[in-house]
Design goal:
Layout lengths: L2 H69 L3 E4 L5 E7 L1 H4 L5 H10 L4 H7 L6 E7 L4 H16 L7 E5 L25 E6 L2 E7 L6 H9 L32
Parallel strand pairs: 3-4
Antiparallel strand pairs: 1-2, 2-4, 3-5, 5-6
Length: 253
């Protein structure tokens, strides 16, 4: 082989190597880019699938949650004597319907407001919240709760300021609510009307007034010395309204 021939072969070889390199490198880059692109597509698909599952789960559960929450208001039950009772968070409007309206309407109408004292109370109740525990099976509740509502009506207390909670009289859940709103509030007798200002209890009327309903509430909201009729026998220390979530087993009376 002459020098010239060898030189030509070498040039051809170099060209072939160069062509191979030029072809392989872009191919490698193409494969890498394709892998990255495919990976991104797969990850996006996974994310979309997960989001879709979460949305479907929430959509499936929301109606059940809503129906359960709705069912906790004005829940009804039959006690051991066969009487219809209310349990848990309830409304004043339900008390005005059968069978509870028999005692609610009559006792509401029969009560005469002490307007002189009530007029002193009225401007002091604008910033107050009321938590009223009662038993629709309880004679004291049937007598006092309509009177309490009539006084609050006279003082123009709005429905949003009052939360009514009805308690059970069963042996296993005596004076308890299904939602246990009574926990931490030392509810031992019903009715019990708790009065709150800035989420702190300022006083309570337990079972029945010491003097009159108007005078008892006036003493509470004006900061006068006041003790409900069971203060000494059963301590009912004022508590923070947020403490209602704490666990405390109420004693049976």
């Amino acid at each position: 082989m002459t020098y010239k021939t060898w030189y030509i072969h070498l040039g051809i070889s170099n060209c072939l190597v160069a062509l191979c390199i030029v072809g392989i490198i872009p191919a490698c880059f193409s494969i890498s880019a394709l892998y990255t692109h495919s990976k991104n597509i797969i990850m996006k698909s996974i994310h979309i699938t997960v989001i879709a599952i979460v949305i479907l789960f929430i959509a499936a559960c929301t109606p059940k949650m809503a129906s359960q929450q709705a069912a906790t208001v004005n829940a009804e039950a039959t006690d051991k004597r066969g009487n219809l009772i209310l349990l848990g968070k309830s409304t004043r409007e339900r008390l005005e319907q059968p069978p509870f309206n028999d005692w609610f309407t009559n006792n509401y109408a029969a009560y005469t407001i002490d307007s002189n004292t009530a007029n002193q109370i009225k401007p002091l109740l604008n910033n107050k919240q009321f938590l009223l525990f009662m038993g629709t099976w309880c004679g004291d509740s049937r007598r006092e709760v309509p009177r309490m509502y009539k006084l609050l009506d006279y003082c123009q207390v709005t429905p949003s300021q009052v939360q009514l909670v009805t308690l059970s009289n069963s042996d296993t859940a005596y004076k308890q609510s299904p939602g246990h709103e009574e926990r931490g509030l030392n509810i031992r007798r019903v009715p019990t009307l708790l009065i709150f200002e800035n989420q702190h209890e300022v006083g309570r009327v337990v079972e029945s007034p010491v003097s009159t309903l108007e005078k008892d509430i006036l003493a509470i909201v004006t900061g006068q010395p006041y003790e409900h009729r069971y203060k000494n026998g059963t301590s009912a220390k004022p508590v923070n309204i947020a403490d209602s979530i704490r666990l405390q087993q109420p004693a049976r009376q």
